Amino acid sequence: MSWRDEPPYANPDSAFLVKYRAQCFCGAVRFEVRADPVDAKICHCRQCQLLHGAPFQWAVIFHKRDVRFVRGPAGIYFYSAESLQVGHGLPCKLSCTTCRTPIADEGRRMFLAFGPLFDFGFPSRIPPPFEPTCHIFYGARVIDVPDTTPKYLGHKGKSPLWHGELSKG
Ligand SMILES: [Zn+2]
Ligand SMILES: [Zn+2]
């Protein structure tokens, strides 16, 4: 069986009940999820800064079995930031081949969707399970985020917490 026949590109569960929908800027890539995220984090690492062209990245994490792309892998560009290779290999980064919106990081079991792809309207009301529980790689931050969630210098639970001043000056 090919990865194309498995979640999140195909889902064998015909009783898949959609809970949230997400799409890229142009709408060519759409996916659906049937569960709340298991966690949500803000990542400040250099890789995310570069690949997103942004000061930090909002990852909303699901089990792959709870995710389904509407058109399978069609229209998705795959890139490995580990092997520096284009093409599908795990873990890899997904973006839209048309508008280049970053879609998600696909791991071996987990699907780390990028939060902005879900549209919660304006003014935005983020469902509580989508709210970030922490900041990771905060040592690489380019701006301070004065919220009350834990801030790790590296990975969540595996690195020291940052205990500094909130303002750099
Ligand atoms: Zn697009
Ligand atoms: Zn990162």
Please give a handful of descriptors for the protein shown:
1 helix, binds zinc ion, mainly beta, globular, glutathione-dependent formaldehyde- activating enzyme (gfa), 3-stranded antiparallel beta sheet, 7-stranded mixed beta sheet, 169 residues, 10 strands, 4% helix
Explained architecture:
The protein contains 1 helix and 10 strands; from the N terminus they run E-E-E-H-E-E-E-E-E-E-E. By secondary structure, the chain is mostly beta strands. The longest helix has 7 residues, at 46-52. The termini are far apart. The model has no long low-confidence stretch (mean pLDDT 94). The strands form 2 sheets. A 7-stranded mixed sheet has the order 6-7-8-9-4-3-10. Strands 1-2-5 form a 3-stranded antiparallel sheet, with no helix packed on it. The radius of gyration is 16 Å and the shape is globular. It has one domain (3-140): glutathione-dependent formaldehyde- activating enzyme (gfa) (Alpha-Beta Complex). Residues 24-26, 28-29, 96, 98-99, 101 line the site of one zinc ion.
Catalogue the ligands.
zinc ion
CATH class: Alpha Beta
Gross geometry: globular
Q: Low-confidence spans: pLDDT under 50, at least 5 residues?
A: none
- Largest sheet properties: 7 strands, mixed
Order of helices and strands: EEEHEEEEEEE
CATH H-level homologous superfamily name: glutathione-dependent formaldehyde- activating enzyme (gfa)
For the terminal residues, how far apart are their CA atoms? 55 Å
